[in-house]
Amino acid sequence: MTIIADQPQATKAEPGQVGGPLLATVRQALAETGARQAVIDEAVLAVASGQVHQAAATAVKEQGTHAVRPFFDCLDLVINHIVTGAPLTAAREAAEALAATPPAQAGHHPWCLPERCIPHRYDDGAVLTEHLGPAYTTELADGHEALRLRAELGSDENLLDYKASVFVWAGDNDGLSFDQDGLGRAIDNLDTFLDGLRHLHRVMGQPRAPKTEGQA
Ligand SMILES: [Zn+2]
User: Fold this and answer.
1) Does 5 reside within a domain?
2) Can you give the three-state secondary structure of 58-122, one letter per residue?
């Protein structure tokens, strides 16, 4: 007679189980050690948070130049420190590089592209400069028509208000000028619009249901 030793039961995620096999394994393994439920819950939450981070970091890295990429790179270094004990020097240097503002040339903003700034000389000898910074453009094109969007940062010493503005143009229309609060609201509106576009993109492949005989 062959005696089959008890096989350790492989942890399986039930269909539809939130978190998948890894969380099921953590739950079961800790339960087997007699850990308190609060400890199990905390461990499961930590692993789930890590899974969310991994998904977000992967999505950001796939986009290559996403603006939050350096932030996620820093988080990777901190996670590596927690897991392996590797010194945090690299993470601190990366964070300092993130926070560092480049020095401004005299009379310019740190964000100025001084070779593009335009000094205007007046009869009384005064020089008032129109400052120009980075600009971003994109084009929405369907193969027939194209809508070109452009945003540019600038400030003008001719204006009493020393604050910078972001100018946004759509095609050949007159541009819009945003102060910092106004641009924040515009970004929120565009975010909502982009979420809507993503929804339309997700559902646009759904075919029409066949008509009933009565409709045909
Ligand atoms: Zn300037």
Assistant:
1) no
2) HHHHHCCCCCCHHHHHHHHHHHHHHHHCCCCHHHHHHHHHHHCCCCCCCCCCCCCCCCCCEEEEC
Q: Judge if 192 and 133 occupy the same domain.
A: yes
Element (H, E) at 209: none
141: in domain:
yes
pLDDT tens by residue, 3-21 = 554 544 445 545 545 667 8
112 CA from centroid of ligand 1 (Å)? 5
Distance (angstroms) between ligand 1 centre and the Cα of 10 equals 65
CA of 195 to the centre of ligand 1 (A): 36
- Residue-wise pLDDT for 151-180, tens only, equals 999 999 988 777 999 999 998 888 999 999
Same domain, residue pair 55 and 123 = no
**Do 43 and 79 lie in a common domain?**
yes
Domain count, the chain: 2
Stronger pLDDT, 67 or 51, i.e. the higher one? 51
pTM of structure: 0.54
State the distance from the centre of ligand 1 to the C-alpha of 58, rounded, in angstroms: 37
